[in-house]
């Protein structure tokens, strides 16, 4: 298969349409693809836009690993990429309300979520990791008992934090939560994806990881349960960009490694 030309430039600021701005009537766009698309000829996919380096704004443009993977999938399907942002706390409700076609926003597969949406094959693996201030004496998960933990609401990290403490501070961005770790007395720890924390450390943030990942998550594309044809085409497109090297190119750009090339032996897979 011919490798697609570079399509990974930042998207124009006009791509930053709030999902909530649409209406159900917007879906009556004359789409004749049989894919039940929100807008004819486009794959409209959502992320929070607050999850660097997966989806974030840079100079007013929406960019990141998730955004570029979505663009590659769309182009493989012969569609125009149309990435948008919407609050994470309501992203599933917005998908089910036909505000966009898919979630390509680092949503981990869980049994609970699978009751509401249909998931594609995984498009990356990451570990749920504890991060603490650089001078913290927290050395293991057991040390989190009764501590103040920062997480994004309605995330898998929220569920994990509840196992250790009732003192949870909620954020709409993991990056903001990690920044609060550097403010004395504000947070004791943050639970988030390993790659997000490592990105913050590499940018000079005075934080550190604790131990090994608590689990491995499988991030996947989410669509409405009835959109079986769309899901099949997304899976075919994902397989194609993995096979032709496009996926690895995107992953190496953002992480200097292939996020699907992970040794899962002996590590709990989040379900």
TrEMBL record:
This is ABC transporter substrate-binding protein. Its main location: other. It is found in: Cell envelope. Residues 1-19 form the signal peptide. It comes from Paenisporosarcina cavernae. Belongs to the bacterial solute-binding protein 3 family. One of its GO terms (cellular component) is cell envelope. It comes from the Bacteria. Keywords: Signal. Gene3D superfamilies: Periplasmic binding protein-like II. Residues 42-258 form the Solute-binding protein family 3/N-terminal domain.
